[in-house]
Amino acid sequence: MRRLATPARHALGSKAPLLERAAEPKRTAMLTAVMRHLEAKAIDEALDLFQVLMAARLLNTAKRGVKPLLPEPEPEPEPARTLQLHRERPGRRHPAAAA
């Protein structure tokens, strides 16, 4: 990142005509460095904003004593009960079959 800092700083301080007159490899390097710098800065700003918003939301939730941000997990359902069938013993007849 340090190698990109110098071209980015130079390009950010330059006017557009100066960048346009720069030789092709140097111009591409400076513009790439600027884009990387701006991208990193935008990500940092977005993360800072997210941190502030989340802290405010958590503090407001705690102050009001409302339900938490994440819902409580539902309890595990009880295992299904199996129907136990009456097994006939070998050699024993069912009363309905005897008639």
**SS strand fraction:** under 5%
**Shape estimate:** elongated
By helix and strand content, what is the structural category?
A: mainly alpha
Helix content: 55-70%
Q: Mean pLDDT across all residues, rounded? A: 77
Largest beta-sheet details: none
Low-confidence regions: none
N-end to C-end Cα span: 94 Å
* Helix count, DSSP H or I runs of 4 or more residues: 4
- Determine Rg (CA atoms, Å): 36 Å
Explain the overall architecture:
- By secondary structure, this protein is mainly α.
- It has a domain at 1-66.
- The chain has four helices and no strands.
- The protein has helices spanning 2-12, 16-21, 24-64, 95-98.
- The protein is elongated, with a radius of gyration of 36 Å.
- The model has no long low-confidence stretch (mean pLDDT 77).
What brief labels describe this structure?
elongated; 4 helices; 99 residues; mainly alpha
Q: Nutshell version of this structure?
A:
The chain has helices at residues 2-12, 16-21, 24-64, 95-98. The chain has 99 residues and is an all-alpha fold. The chain has a domain at 1-66.
SSE blueprint and pairings:
Layout (H helix, E strand, L loop, with lengths): L1 H11 L3 H6 L2 H41 L30 H4 L1
